[in-house]
User: Fold these one by one.
Assistant:
Number 1:
Amino acid sequence: MAGNFWKSSHFEQWILDKGDLLRERGEDLKVYSEEEYQKLMIFFTNFIQEMGQCKERELGTQCNENTRDRPIQRMQAIATACVYFRRFYARRSFKDIDPFLLSMTCTNLASKVEEMGHLTHTKLTATFQRAMKKWALFDPQQMALYHQIKHHHISETEFCLVELLDCSLIVYHPYRPLLQFRNDMKNASVQNAEHLYQDAWRVCNDSLKSDVALLYPPHMVAIAAIMVAALMRGGYEKDKELKNWLAELNVDYEKILEIQQMLFSMYSVWRTFDEQTQLKGLLEKIPRPNQINQTAHNVHIQ
């Protein structure tokens, strides 16, 4: 992505303080424990990622070869949707907009912002329904309610989302810094740099299930992902080239370690998250608007 992160609205408005984030989340933390909230966010990140993959299949026959060769852009669109989702609920409660409606809206908006193709309402609804089938969460009556979501609901929710984001729609992700770090590691003769890059890419994907995208710059997330990937591969203490390369980076390693700890904490919660037995109860506790078809126009954003 072109532009200077340090002069962007992402840096100026959307690198949040952890204490402020927890205070803003207070309304929902009256209903959920912090671990339960994290599990719910893990689910919705997975749900948005599944919607993104369904969208790719919907657009597959329309994509040209040049588009198919852009994995960074494709993942970036999904990641942008996840960040929009997290930013909204960093400021508002689940009771303000139904999270399934917001997940559809974030997916659609991110696809447009990242120039990855526009979905008609019919195709957007189809991707939503395919993603829902993966979990089989709802009884027919509840599913029928979600089938009532109309184009104007998405449009009005998008209006509220863009308003809350203060039109700050450009999101910087760790994928591009990670690509540059891969090239730097290869030039520094770091062993298995390509495999490390691929593992770190997956860690960056997983990082969307935590709060790190709300709290830290993307290049720091990329460095932490490399270190986590190295630890998962057996540690980097014996990899002299990698240690030397990391030592030469001009970065605040206290923050890198904070990111690492958050990622390992997320993995720990994720491992204990049995969707079959826990997810339905978490979803039933969501403080919902009076009606699912309450238009986003009626949601008071301030």
Number 2:
Amino acid sequence: MTVLFWLFAALMVLAALALIVPPLWRQRAVAAADMDGRNIAIAKIRLAELQEQREVGLLSPAQYTEQRTELELALADDLDIAAPTAAATPQSRWLVYALVLLIPLLAVSLYADLGTYQALEPTPEMLATTTPTAATPSIEQINQMVAKLAERMKTNPNDAEGWVMLGKSYKYLQQFPKAADAFGQAYRLLGDNSEVMLLYADALAFANNEQMAGKPAELAFKVLAKEPDNVTALWYGGMAKAQAGEAVEGVKLWRKLAALLPPGSQAQQETQAILAKLEATVPGGVPKEAGTAATPAPAAGVTLQVQVSLAASLQAAAAPDDTVFIYAQALTGPKMPLAIIRKRVADLPVTVSLSDAQAMLPTMKLSAFPSVKLLARVSKSGTATTEPGDLLGVIEPVATGSSQSQAIVIDTQVQ
């Protein structure tokens, strides 16, 4: 029994060391993993912004690829920098060595004074422990990281870059009042920074049902005063004038905007459509100013008329502000959209035109394929990547030479 007892006691000491020592070695590794998670979350938010800018035509495919590559390289650098911190410091190693020696000595000494092995009925058990592995953060994890960033900003209120990051994070989470507060703090610190002013105006408008009156309009026109060709400021300025009943001034701003946007892009087409509606409200029309470039006509080529509706069975699964992507794909080969238009659930049912004008690459357009697949997808996150919970409608094959209107019913939930 004595031999068995001492064997069991030795096993218990080893078990105690197994519980105490690994966390000391892992402590810095866990901190590094937490930092990696934050870096990945920030990169995910920035990538969503780049995708949105590409989809509306503000970034060309080449510009999008270049900026995405820069983002990936920056993230790789951040992860490489964080990795060495996983190594234990000399101080932590000495602490581990001391514990490995002291715990057995103390255990034996105490037992010699207090212990009695006869009272012990050993029943060994196998204990399994797992260590969480790093993964791409979920929305819940991003929420937690944003909350930590918000707490950090309370003790670092003069960190302008931190406020901008917090504002963009809240915007990504569609918490627009909080985003406006964060961008307001950045504006307080940075003053007349055009990017921050427009981010602030955008968040304020979204927090107030997309109304530009007041501070949002003031910020937009302040940017236009120093950057007359800033397309974002022109958009907000035109919206502010239209909402204020100053249609003539709104038309002038949006005409200039349409001339600056990439020819045939979705952003230009949407601006042209809104511009036409606003022009129709002005008796006698609005004469074109001298020196104002005419709005480029859409590119010629294949055009498909597409009607999109949401099935009654899925109405409860969609919110009015959820993004709807309407696009065409090749039946086989690359999944890159041949043409794409972005709407909201509140716009449904809607009829749109898909054409070569919305092609992302000259070689990947509707007219290059005899038949295509047409899709309409409700995105809960607003990003171009299909995710579980999205709502989808598909029809295929569709002849690109068809003059008939195509009807897509969004009737399936992605699992």
Number 3:
Amino acid sequence: MLFKKILFTLLSFLIFQNITLAQECFPPKPQGLVVDVVGALDKNQFLELNNKLVKFSNETSTQILVLIIDDLCGMDKSMYATEIGQKWGVGTDGKDNGIVLLVKPTGGQGQRQVFIAVGYGLEGVIPDAIAKRIVEKELIPYFKLNDINGGINAGVQVLMSLALGEFSAKDYQKKTESSNYIIFIIILIIIAFYIFSKIGAARKYSSINNVGLMTSLFLLMSSSSSHSGSFGGFKSGGGGSSFGGFGGGSFGGGGAGGSW
């Protein structure tokens, strides 16, 4: 009997500690669909993004929450995003059509995190593999350039299109795969054009200076490389479109993320 009392007291303490930790780690429930604890977005970017997400929610009932934070409180990014979605009820009750886009842009290389948590009702439309592709192809390329707003908007646009059925997950996968080939071909063309232009100049240099073609090409390449230059506050919701609040959506751990 004494053992049961001790066990019950211990479990109650642990549950209380977890609830307290969650309350301290999670921002207050917002009045809109954008929470920016870091201040990564300026006022205009914040309002424009929030208005777009609220308008989409009002027209479709699908809710996309963008959460920009600076601390995961030791939690895994997937757990944090899923817990927020479940705790706040992002999406609509019965449809479970909520999405949480979590961005942690602070920290050193590899410590900056992003995760897309997908509600139960959208897991078939946005499977984990597609969420991963959105992270890698739409979000992180912008984030690496320190363009948080650009990456979020690019990712949100794809998420909206998938949720609306404007194209399928398979269509998006084919599109991103084909774009990789196009970029590769363009790079090859640029390299080939550069080499051929240097060969033409090397032939001319060779005939004028009476040196071999390969020597001329090497001298021209060295010359061009030596002259080349070197390249190198908490906000949430509010303003604009009227947000009716979260609808009680549920999450089950679907989604994917990455780091940069």
Number 4:
Amino acid sequence: MGLASILKRRKKGQSESVSIVSRDLISSLPDEILGKILSSLPTKVAASTSVLSKSWRNLLPLVDSLNFDDSIFLYPERDDEEARCVLFSNFVDKTVALLSTCPIKSFSVNGRYEKPRVNGWIRTAMQRGLSELHLRCRHQIDRDADFFFWSKTLVKLTLSNGCRIKYVPKKEGFVIFPSLKSLSLGDVAICHAHFDKLMASCPGLEEVFIRNGDGQPFPPSWTGHVSGDFMKRLVIYSHVPKYTNFYKKEEVWLDTVNLVYFDYSSYVSNFYVMCDMDSLVEARLDLRLWESTIQYDDYDDDYFPMNDFRTFGNVSHLLGAIGPNVKTLHLSSDSLEAIYFCCNFYVMFNNLVTLSFESDKDKGWQGVPHLLKNAPNLQNLVIKGLVHRVTGRCGNVCPCFHLKRNFKACLCRSCELSRVSCLTTMPVKVLEISGYGGTRREIEQMRHFLGKLKCLELVKIGVQQEADNNDLRLKVMSLPRLSSKCNIQFI
């Protein structure tokens, strides 16, 4: 229901006094506040409030954020899609013209529009001091949009949903987007030369979001290179499976020394060139292998070809840059395998306080022992799901029974024989498990954790909705605990 409909609605039988009070409450709000409320709505909805009363007609010029989305209220009475697009474009023309003398803070376009029209809207918005521009449409940026690159007020830019970048200016001694702090590129069509030129010409960037693989038929737009002295937040999502050879050949080069937050999700590359991330606080890694590792489940460490990185890629330098300073690390289930199969030296996580990772019934925990043994200051261990694929290398953090060998899985034979577990030396105080279902394997894993982690003070368990809570709780609460301070909470 639109805002106009909500505001006009009156329940049958409502007393006159209540109606008067309601009208007074609405009319008593300052115009500036009403303008902020309307700015948070799609512009089509905000404009529809002008039918309420004469006073509401004067509020549209106070709207400083324009959001044009042709999927909302797109003239449903018209069957012809092209005609509907024309009607909506006409509406945008009229709205932009009406606000041509008003400040415009944010301008967002989502839909199919003619290039000259979109360029005209952008030009008008920039003349009104535009600071945020979001083009979520198949708009083509070429030489006709040269003015677009020289805005001195633009701080945040989003280009996505098939936007095509055919031109990036290069003028000696000039910087494009001199005020730009945040850049988001999601499934855009851009050649590698233009991508590198765009990144190199925006030296003041503090946030960069790159996303490939949301359904557009484009090859990866990211060249593997990102640099920025002021960059604090970097998010990269690049999953285009049919271009696997691109990842195998690509060298990832990141020169972002002041990065505070790093979120990287991609297929493993052959090589990473990384600067030291001395300021890094939090990192999220989703590292996907090019092929399955199931055929290596039965290998011993003594004869597994660990140096053959031609098979899976190499993340050694990526972890080496992140490990020494990161305080919070989040890992996908794929990353646990990648860390084991694609790292040729041990990385210390001396400052790591919180480690969280996801489990998947088709993925192993091969990388978990390495992470725990090299995180001497770990305080919080967060695990999403306990069920994972049984391998010969789940390590001494896991009591899984490997059916093919008929002995408990371990990182190596000598550790299994001596029953040594790295968990006994871990300083972990808080263990948090989500998606707990109470199966036999999960209960045995909980028994293993509670019986090995001697510093535990709090265990938080999130239970699956379909699980029998009462029986599940009784079984967990009856498990022996090595730590006398350990309390268990179900959340």
